[in-house]
Design brief:
53% of the residues lie in helices and 10% in strands. It is mainly alpha-helical. The chain is elongated, with a radius of gyration of 21 Å. The N and C termini lie far apart (58 Å).
Length: 220
Amino acid sequence: MFQEGEKLSHEVGVFNLPADLIAILGRAKFRTSYGQNLTLHLLETAKIGTHIAEEVRADINIVRIGCLLHDIGKVVPGEGSHVKLGVELLKKYNIPEAIINCVAEHHEDKPFSSIESVIVHVADAISGARPGARYEDVEEYATRLTEMEDIAKKYEGVEDAYAFEAGRELRVIINPGKLDDGATTLIADKIREEVSKSLAIPGEVKVTAIREFRAVSGNE
């Protein structure tokens, strides 16, 4: 992951991020958002933002790093929006406040505090709205979800499986006649481990195994 993050950072023109943060950023290569590969989106947003910053004489370095990191929360496991997760992560690594504000404000969750925040917001919107941007990797995305479901379905006792949340969650339907509660928990762990290893999905993959037994007696 570090090599992917370093490659992306250097291509954008950022060379001074903490090594752990660079490794986290590398997960973007394996993440899509609305069908758009996240690495390509970050790279494109940074290029657009840098160009705008040059034109309006804003702080190019803040814009460049803000664009690079604005969606980093999408590759961080945890509760809450990707904006919240991203801000919390960057504070942990003592990233300058001006850059954190760009991340916190890029979806207008907070009022803009600087021209640099406005530029990151605009660059993000332009990249996402570009014709075809959100659909370039839809086939790859759909294939990954299918592969996740197929891994789960091969286990005995699994009746069906559904992947969602961009491949970060897998819901597995268990046949209660074949697996008891203990075996259900065990198989959920096995599926999660195999999905994580086989498909190289960044962050935590959540597997929810549902085992439901119903008995109905009498007429309504």
